Amino acid sequence: MSRSPHPRARARRVAVLGTAAALLGAGTVSLSSPASATTPTAVTLAGTFDSEIGCTADWQPDCPQAHMSQQANGTWTASLNLPGGSYGYKIAINDSWTENYGASGVAGGANISMTVPTAGEVVNFVYDPNTHLATDDSHQQIVTAVGDYQSELGCSADWSATCATTQMTDPDGDGVYTYTTTAIPAGSWNTKVTIGQSWTENYGAGGTANGANIGFTVPANGSTTTFSYNSVTHLTTVVSTGGSGSSLNTLGALYTPTGTTFRLWSPDSANVSVSVGGSSHALSPTTLSGYTNVYQTVVSGDLKDQAYQFYVGGVAVPDPYAQMVTPGTAQGVVVDTAAVTPTDGGWDARPSLANREDSVVYELSVRDFTIDASSGVDPAKRGKFLGLVQTGTTDNGAKTGIDHLKDRPYGRGRGQAARPGCRWR
Description:
The protein is mostly beta strands. Helices cover 4% and strands 32% of the residues.
């Protein structure tokens, strides 16, 4: 089950309980909010077109012909051959109305409307179980991130325009399509985007039709790679950051020289934006393994050392994942983490944790940690960064300073209470 980025925040989340009641009439269905989100074993396109595809009735939540198929990236997809007309539909979970999602991914929300041309057509549907958003290409084009990495993600072949696994989504309808994955192995890869599950229309480097491949590098296995396609300019940006051996955050400002990915967890509002370089950019819902309610945008260009400001509901909020801030403000600063990576072998790999709340986090003052003589630090280095990293320090035969922290990862010595960082006694 996906977890929120901060465990204490879960206490603020209230589940809405209700009994599902279907109201059939005038082509609409009104249902109360589901009791809770579950891991779907079946996802159904329940709507006014069900009888057209062989179901016994419209709005049938358990109709086999309306079932969607789960893809390797966790999304559910279906392709239905529908006659011309106007339709409404919702997503029914596990063959029941107990849990269902409508327009904008709202639990028990309004019907999703769509129109099929008079001659009829095959309509492709995508449902994201993390954001609960359902989209179809009757009003949005299907954009696929194709490349030489697709077989690594479960596609039948590389450069496949028809593979649903790497389909990009535009849930807020702003014309910017994104796709995020952590499954591309470390290495150098190439990509382009195709439109309408065909190579007839495709865009490469610089947004050029039938243009050159777009090269990108995944720094480590498990890195988060985000593809972003602007349907107006046809420009595609790829940002790959993180990995099990990297110090980069999953949220916040994730820098590369060609673009920065801004991500923020916002469980209470979908009105999320970021201001950077004098421009404002709306954040869209994104699928991120292990998280829910995460919004992101990719801003092209080299934003190194630029200040940025997140806004939620129009109110400026600090970025809790900022690696640097502007003093006295709520602004973060875009940091090139690679430029501050230790030169003596890099950062140690993060330990494997079953749950993030099992982490042990130290917070200390550089000055207080070494200012006292009992720290064992050389007098000239006390209260300074050099004192913080000085090794071999002791007090009455006991390790102090950085050696103490490394030797006592949970803050306790043999039979000792946890020591504060200000004095060693």
